[in-house]
Amino acid sequence: MEKLRIAFMGTPEFAVGILDTIIKNNNTIVGVITAADKPAGRGQKIKYSAVKEYALDNNLKLLQPTNLKDESFLEELKALNANLQIVVAFRMLPEVVWKMPKFGTFNLHASLLPNYRGAAPINWAIINGDTKTGVTTFFIDDKIDTGAMILSSETAISPDENAGQLHDRLMQLGSETVLNTLALIEKGNVTTTIQKENPEIKTAYKLNKENCKIDWTKPAIEIFNLIRGLNPYPSAWCFFNDKNEEWNVKIHEAKMILENHNFSIGSLICSKKEMKIATKDGYIQVLNIQFPGKKKMNTAELLNGITFSDEAKAY
User: Does the predicted model carry a pTM greater than 0.90?
Assistant: First the structure.
């Protein structure tokens, strides 16, 4: 039985949870590959990826290529002498990279493939109102998230769970699934399942300003799912308009109330401590909100400093 020598590739916090579990279970990491540093935020300060922070804290060999086909990077990668590569939330690899190790390259993806291939599987499972999701390990091929599946693990999504909470649970489930995958590879017991294509497959589109905007003409359940599916990041947003003033606001947390009413869609109904927004089949009660240039606040805090007229609208 050949001892595994693993090169790990990943960038965000989700990948850190998996990497930490791999190391704590006495596996050998010969190198970590993560995104190049880039400026972020208002001050455009250089920001390290979560995986880089972890690698530095744990004295792991670190590579940060800007071009994955660059000869000098490929030489450095080869020099690690890895016989397996693991990818978690990184980027598409060229064939010369994923074919390099003896035992191949496998990816952990936060969905039950073939559903939710792509950039934001955790968010879209909630946005679409799914009641279950999971994680899948698969050997990488030349397309995005289409390779032969090794293991998958399923979990229920609770009706009010948000993307941040599901992220943390899938990180835990993913860690266990990666360890089980490593055990199969080490023992030479891997069997794979080819992903079947079908027209019903759901896609995890990249999140952008358009698909994060709330459409108040939609049913309350769809709006509620969008808000929780984008909480804590990147957040659902819309415009508020009152007395010729307009604000671009983020709604971080909400509750859904289904009932008949006579308000027009998008009307803001406020008391001293509560804000509801009318939909065609009920209300979205706003619990946590953020105005431009302000910090997140609960609705009571907001209504302490601002009063909306009866004409106020969300759109």
Answer: yes
